Amino acid sequence: MSETTPQLQVRDLQKTYGTNQVLRGLNVDIQSGEKIAIIGPSGSGKSTLLRILMTLEAPNGGSVKVDGESVWTMNVNGQEKKANEAHMHRMRAKLGMVFQHFFLFPHLSVRQNLTLAPKLVNNVSGTVADETAMELLQMVGMDAKADAYPAQLSGGQKQRVAIARALAMQPEIMLFDEVTSALDPELVHEVLNVLRKLAEESDMTMLLVTHEMNFAREIADRVLFFDGGVIREEGPPSQIFTQPKQQRTQEFLKTVLEA
Amino acid sequence: MWKWDVVWQVMPDILSGLVVTLEAVAGGMVLALLLGLLWAVMRRSKMSYISWPAWAIVEFVRSTPLLVQLFFVYYVMIDVVGRGFSPLMTGILVLGVHYSCYTAEVYRAGLDGIARGQWNAAKALNLTPYQTYRYVILPQAIPPILPNLGNYLIAMLKEAPLLSTITVLEILNEAKIFGNEHYRYLEPLTIVGVLFIVLSLLAGLSVEWLRKRTAAMTS
Fold it and tell me: What is the pTM of this model?
């Protein structure tokens, strides 16, 4: 793969819920290893983009390519057809996602939450899955709680486990959907610390939808400002946060930074 | 009036009938639990050629009486095909299919109780639909509905004497046959009644125990 082929290529992406058009022809290229912060007002399509990338929702139009290969369509004897489940399964393996509300599996222990998918999907042996799980839990500072159940954890702890669970599948691209928005203010920093470490130490591509402007500024290589279902402005954080070109960006940053 | 020697005389027949009744209910319940889950899962499918048949079967079976279904499968099968299943096998099949349409509704409630996010999390981890049901959704959905499923077991137990109408030698039929032969109905039918009370109470207590256990587990 040449360096110029973006790892993630989104073209003219459209998504409509009923009469509400959430994505209006969104375009973006993301290079392997980039740390991308996605900011913007609520309803601007930030989470919808991540959900479509993770194949949790189907777009109404446009295309998504990962490593140059279309996610939602496949080539059958020279014809573009709707992707089948096997194709989607293969494409999905490149991505991992962390949700605002964690969605840990409540009937499984922390360790089992991390080992379930590697064992079932990647056919990793139980011992290897356990070892990887413990390493990841150590990284997010949750190894002491390996045998606890999700209900026994605080929000910040749950989210750290959810991050480790997604990492256990070894994705190339990680999607973080407002992962600190559901947390009590005093628990936000422990999750941000984990994300910071990940951003610094791993070469994974990271897309973070976030309302933490200071954090976005600190870790992002590039900031995308979503507004009305398109990317209104993008650039390095130093430019976006200090000299935004678009008036909508200026207005948005004024409201959130003053709050 | 009441004669104890009649009780001792009829007891072996009634006990053998009881075994048949329990066989029918056990078999019917296993079938009802499996098929009900199948209908509930099929009905959730986005593909109408999967969800529609399940809906049609459930609605059809629930709108016709159990007794009619028993007669139809037993007698019409013999009429049309020339040979049918044995009476007991017919009873198990009909009881199972009939009650599967009620357990399907219970399963549906259980599945509806699982947050959308659990499905999304499973999908983001690339689990297949089967793996998602097997390892993520059902282990959460089933414990809370166990008591409701148990209630249908009790209901099935109490409807099992209907199998006597297709000549299954279950508990009521044995009592009736004894009565016809000896012109004594008081003791046989009383014993049948008492046994049903005992069985229903035992089943009710187990369901209550289950309810407490699952409540403790899910809280």
Answer: 0.90
